[in-house]
Amino acid sequence: xxxxxxxxxxxxxxxxxxxxxxxxxxxxxxxxxxxxxxxxxxxxxxxxxxxxxxxxxxxxxxxxxxxxxxxxxxxxxxxxxxxxxxxxxxxxxxxxxxxxxxxxxxxxxxxxxxxxxxxxxxxxxxxxxxxxxxxxxxxxxxxxxxxxxxxxxxxxxxxxxxxxxxxxxxxxxxxxxxxxxxxxxxxxxxxxxxxxxxxxxxxxxxxxxxxxxxxxxxxxxxxxxxxxxxxxxxxxxxxxxxxxxxxxxxxxxxxxxxxxxxxxxxxxxxxxxxxxxxxxxxxxxxxxxxxxxxxxxxxxxxxxxxxxxxxxxxxxxxxxxxxxxxxxxxxxxxxxxxxx
Length: 340
Prior knowledge:
Blueprint: E1 18-21, H1 28-41, H2 61-71, E2 76-81, E3 84-93, E4 99-107, H3 116-130, E5 135-141, H4 145-153, E6 157-167, E7 185-187, E8 190-194, H5 200-210, H6 230-239, E9 242-249, E10 255-263, E11 269-275, H7 284-295, E12 303-308, H8 312-320, E13 324-335, H9 336-339
Parallel strand pairs: 4-5, 11-12
Antiparallel strand pairs: 1-2, 2-3, 3-4, 5-13, 6-12, 6-13, 7-8, 8-9, 9-10, 10-11
């Protein structure tokens, strides 16, 4: 990630005040300085630097411009006071037509409580309306009450929260699991085994029933997410990606839960755990215990799992396994048809 150093604001008395679209050729240094200042000092500004911390810096100007033209939308807006950028908001397109993501909402500390963040958000809403968009989504830290209140005031609604948990390879602890001598593993009323290739649709539907689709950020899970055909195998091979999914199966063949390890070159291990609501509290421990045992035979890297913040059963298991919660992000959505 590029190093961002806050720089003093430079004011020009002849410049006007108010919102205008981001100028990708000229505004990036000031925007990065503002984001660095706001989100290093505190999380209680106008919003959260949460979607992609260097979404405007890491991409070349051309790539960003092409994304802008593809969606027919400005990449965001800035607020000027005496020629200096004192507020900003990014607007990104998604794979779903008419859906946009709001990110990097920030206002300089000296200019807060003046309605700048609200005005920038209203500008974004109007821009999306003009382009016949139907919804906006954003993420905000769950403890950022000021930002949540701002978004709710313009009709965003909370969909749920996800907590990011981390552990190092040398610090995570195995969980106890009473595995029988049968094959596949039998734990209580469930069999724990690898997901079969023909079960990818069932896995997708279980995932969708377990977690609100819009909490899969930034786009909802693809229906073929768990499909492991030849093309997926080749793509994983070329990208150095390895994925394995384990399921908890009832005696009648119904899937009660599934758990995945995703590993990529030079990146941390990413885990996921999904349990059908009917079986909450029943299969979390055996599935998570299976993943942690499988990790013993993997590369020595850090481990991350993003999981619904409201799931106390899994939260307790992760604590026992020596995972540490780093942050919790709340996803909020504005459906323009509900706003009138």
